[in-house]
Amino acid sequence: MMTPRFSLAVAVAAGALILPIGASIAAGPEETPPDTSVAITQASEVDSPLSVAELADVAVILDAAHADPKYGGEWLDEDGHALTVYVSGAPTEKLALAIKNAEHIKVGLETSPYTNAELTEAALSLAKADQRVQRVSIDPRGAGLSVAILATNGAEKSTAVAVLSKTVAAKYVTTWTATPTPAADAADSRDSDTSPFAGGARVSAGSEGCSTGLPVKKDGVERLLIARHCTGGTAGVQWKSYGSGAVVGKTTGANSVVWDSQLIGNKDYEPKMFSGGWHSSTKRDIARVRPSTIAIGTTINVSGGFSGGGSGKIMGTDVISYSGANHGPLYRIENSSGEPVGGNGDSGSPAVSNWDGFSEPAGIYVARSTASGDIKPCNGSPSTSTRKCATVGWVSPWHSIRDAMGVTINFNVDVGLA
């Protein structure tokens, strides 16, 4: 069930906090501030594994925090069952009392450099100040702003920063970054797909957000895979492109609990998947490779609709439990360089072995590790504290999905190995 975390004047990119990956995010496409196409991101809702008693404490504390004019932000550490509230000065009596009376969750009170109100005002000001500003992110702890500028090289970035640094709002900026492509959704991209639909795209269904998976055929009809836990196996759930709003299809009755997989149908699909970053419009052909080359030690690329591309090696197989059932054996993939293989929102995304010009299916990405040593900052969008990513994750094997669900891969390239 979706539990409101906090209400903000600038609502927008939302994230999920639960395992498995991406089972829920805030509904709808990213909104934009008035009179600008710039996205100003803050977490708005979470789906929480905390107990009812813990959530009740959180609700009371945040109600008081948001009424405090010095409120700077918050950080909810679900793995540690702890909430930290940030204020720019002494808390109000109401907030202090709410924290004191919390019985079920650990609560910390820290000082923030700024209030959330002034950061929000500054973010809107920067968004309107220059058309090269593509995204303004508000730090959840009230520490400042991160601004992404449309620039293809360092010189262009420096020129834009020099102009924006003269604004009053610039004093709140802690990080200036460059993005080579506009942040506004473009047609037929990972975060704004159009028909015929491909794998690895960001999709939503009401309060649920996941990624489209491998393109397949069932009884000769084109379909897309998605993780079953995204909708609990329910048939008839309508999925839409997160950015374009185009209807990607509805879940069918064909699903597998053990292999955490389900089909989306009733629309046009292509034998391709997105590759590259979270906003990429680049696609790769899906190949049928016989015999399969997927094995322990194979490097697997995860094409997440929220994180973009991640990768890790198959290090073994595990049966793991989540969403009320055992799943697997699943491939366990690990990134030894400390980079995330995926995160919240990437559930269902294609997991493949990339060849020169095409990709061999290995399965779909379904879960991530919750071990504290495996958790890393997320790539992609939203890049907020409410979204968790990890260097270790699990992939439901393609051959197991194929056999259990009676599907075949929808491919552009056919490779027969001697």
Count of helical segments? 5
The separation of the N and C termini measures 51 Å
User: Which bin fits the share of residues in helices?
Assistant: 10-25%
Shape type: globular
Mean pLDDT reading: 81
Q: What name does CATH use for the topology of the largest domain? A: Thrombin, subunit H
- Main β-sheet, spatial strand arrangement: 12-11-15-16-17-14-13-29
Uncertain stretches of 5 or more adjacent residues: 1-48, 182-186
Largest sheet: 8 strands, antiparallel
Beta percentage is: 35-45%
Corresponding CATH architecture of the largest domain: Beta Barrel
Walk me through the structure.
With 418 residues, the protein is mostly beta strands. The chain has 3 domains: 3-31 and 44-111, no CATH class; 116-179, GMP Synthetase, Chain A, domain 3; 197-416, Thrombin, subunit H (Beta Barrel), CATH 2.40.10.10. It is built from 5 helices and 30 strands. It has helices at 52-67, 93-101, 116-129, 154-164, 398-405, and strands at 3-4, 39-41, 45-46, 71-77, 82-87, 106-111, 133-138, 145-150, 173-179, 197-199, 202-205, 208-211, 215-218, 221-226, 238-241, 247-256, 261-265, 269-274, 283-290, 299-304, 308-322, 325-334, 342-343, 350-354, 358-368, 375-376, 389-390, 392-397, 407-409, 413-416. The strands form 6 sheets. The chain has an 8-stranded antiparallel sheet with strand order 12-11-15-16-17-14-13-29. A 6-stranded antiparallel β-barrel has the order 20-21-22-28-25-24. Strands 2-7-8-9 form a 4-stranded mixed sheet. Strand 5, helix 2 and strand 6 (106-111) form a beta-alpha-beta unit.
